[in-house]
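Q: What residues go here?
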């Protein structure tokens, strides 16, 4: 019989071996009678300082005839045999094509390959080994490559990230995502930590390993190959034209292009693919000394190796809008993330060690169609562009990002840098960020600061540093799909992942990729030899 036992507690220095004894005590048996013992969850309980504890859930097996004591922390684990995925009968013309190698495209391609459907995957940017150099050059010299950058290239938008793997979705596929990441090189802890992260250093290796596995299973991955047109016939997709001047003929296409492929959105819109406006959030990156965040969260235990760099999550509902922290990167840096020239876009990234001086997080406010000033389905993109260009201008129109001390931002003045130095990957210039965002956003941000300071002591420090602007928090569009996950009105075209409006973050994008791959397997016949 398989059990899960929750609420096993260790002090920060407590040895994990003690967990088995605790589990045995709860069960009222000897620890030798417990087999297949595994940690399935570890979280930090920092509510009482001092006295921060680690809280675990474990899974284990005991004899089938064992009488389970009445204890809410003990649960019998349901038999979780995976659903068997059987191939459908619709013939695949050509090979299934996946556009994009972000988490959605990679996981979709992986599952297709694992099921014998040898996908072709095309990616507009470079493979990750080359991409890293191109991105570094952009950060150092300020010269943007519009095809390979922080948004585009192998691994997608999350490659230069903190690799946080937290998600709010509850889907059985999340487990597969974490297990596959672990199989391809992530530390085992990601399979049980409540707030797992991989770090950009590990992500780069994992992404390359996943690609090699897809190729080993018969898939083909083509880099520097952008989808520039789609061929449609009688409401069915029948091919994709690429930037390398070839047409890939197929009746199954996965559109996993992320939220920043504005040129591809435009092309699809012009071809009649339906789009809807979608809310998202905009604001700034805010930086504090990591030590300040550690102390606020962990008090005297701050710096203990079992705790690592502390994170935070803040949320304030105002009049009609919410302000919140987003994509917080402990011990990380602020990265230049634009994909179009003449614009500044911020985001955050960390190495696995999370050991840099500053903590950074987006501080954003919700915006929606009513703010876009147009009913055009792609209106949200123009709205993003407006603030990205103003940030470029505020930075001096030379690729420098506008930065501002929090106190100066609150007082609408440019000022100078204080004790928190920008970790931004490019040049910065002191400016008034109030000029790069709509007043309803800056007002809401200002209202939130006091409130957040009460929740996290020090958040409102005068020298905290803002870098503008953060606009790519999620997709500004949604491509509606039907019950078979196809684009409304276009058979065989599968909008997938964050860009299409079905995910927000690495794990949920990967889950959506798996979901679409499963649908393709269920729909299309497996060819004996796809060439
Ligand atoms: P993407 O990852 O955007 O992938 C889309 C891919 O499609 C890209 O590789 C692109 O080059 C390619 N493409 C686009 N158009 C074409 C075309 N026409 N032809 C061929 N290829 C095309 N999320 C988290 O959960 N945790 C984090 O810590 C985190 N940190 C982040 C840090 C940064 C700097 C950024 C930018 C994002 C971060 N995110 C994070 C968000 C996360 O990266 C995205 O949610 C996720 O990558 C979305 O996955 P996706 O596959 O849907 O799209």
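A:
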């Amino acid at each position: 019989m398989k059990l899960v036992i929750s609420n096993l507690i260790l002090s920060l220095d407590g040895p994990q071996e003690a967990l088995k004894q605790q589990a045995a005590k709860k069960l009222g048996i000897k620890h030798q009678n417990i087999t297949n013992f595994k940690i399935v969850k570890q979280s930090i309980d920092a509510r009482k300082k001092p006295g921060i504890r680690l809280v675990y859930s474990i899974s284990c097996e005991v004899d089938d005839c064992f009488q389970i004591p009445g204890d809410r922390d003990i649960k019998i684990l349901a038999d979780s045999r995976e659903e068997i995925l059987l191939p459908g009968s619709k013939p695949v013309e050509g090979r299934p094509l996946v556009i994009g190698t972000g988490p959605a495209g990679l996981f979709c391609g992986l599952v297709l390959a694992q099921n014998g459907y040898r996908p072709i995957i095309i990616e507009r940017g470079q493979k990750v080994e080359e991409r890293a150099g191109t991105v570094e050059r952009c950060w150092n010299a300020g010269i943007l490559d519009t095809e390979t950058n922080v948004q585009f290239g192998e691994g997608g938008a999350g490659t230069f990230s903190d690799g946080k793997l937290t998600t709010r979705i509850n889907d059985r596929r999340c487990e597969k995502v974490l297990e596959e990441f672990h199989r391809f090189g992530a530390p085992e802890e990601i399979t049980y930590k409540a707030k797992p992260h991989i770090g950009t250093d590990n992500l780069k290796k994992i992404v390359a390993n996943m690609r090699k596995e897809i190729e080993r299973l018969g898939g083909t991955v083509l880099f520097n190959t952008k989808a520039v047109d789609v061929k449609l016939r009688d409401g069915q997709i029948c091919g994709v034209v690429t930037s390398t001047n070839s047409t890939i003929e197929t009746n199954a296409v996965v559109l996993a292009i992320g939220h920043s492929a504005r040129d591809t959105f435009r092309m699809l819109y012009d071809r009649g693919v339906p789009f809807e406006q979608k809310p998202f959030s905009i604001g700034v990156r805010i930086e504090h000394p990591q030590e300040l965040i550690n102390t606020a969260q962990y008090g005297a235990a701050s710096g203990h190796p079992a705790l690592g760099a502390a994170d935070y999550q803040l949320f304030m509902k105002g009049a009609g809008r919410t302000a919140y922290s987003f994509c917080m990167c402990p011990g990380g840096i602020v990265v230049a993330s634009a994909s179009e020239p003449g614009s500044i876009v911020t985001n955050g990234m960390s190495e696995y060690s999370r050991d840099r001086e500053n903590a950074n997080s987006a501080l954003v406010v919700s915006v929606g169609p009513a703010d876009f000033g147009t009913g055009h389905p792609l209106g949200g993109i123009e709205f993003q562009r407006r603030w990205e260009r103003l940030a470029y201008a505020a930075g001096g129109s030379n690729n420098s990002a506008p930065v501002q001390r929090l106190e100066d931002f609150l007082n609408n003045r440019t000022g100078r840098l204080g004790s928190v130095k920008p970790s931004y990957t490019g040049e910065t210039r002191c400016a008034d960020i109030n000029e790069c965002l709509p007043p309803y956003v800056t007002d809401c941000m200002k209202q939130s600061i006091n409130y957040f300071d009460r929740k996290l002591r020090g958040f409102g420090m005068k020298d905290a540093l803002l870098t503008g602007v953060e606009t790519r928090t999620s997709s500004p569009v949604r491509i509606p799909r039907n019950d078979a996950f196809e684009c409304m009105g276009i058979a065989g075209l599968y909008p997938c992942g964050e860009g299409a409006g079905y995910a927000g973050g690495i794990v949920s994008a990967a889950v959506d990729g798996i979901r679409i791959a499963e649908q393709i397997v269920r729909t299309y016949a497996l060819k004996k030899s796809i060439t």
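A: Context that may help when evaluating the design: The chain has a mean pLDDT of 96. The domain at 97-276+477-523 is CATH 3.50.50.60 (FAD/NAD(P)-binding domain).
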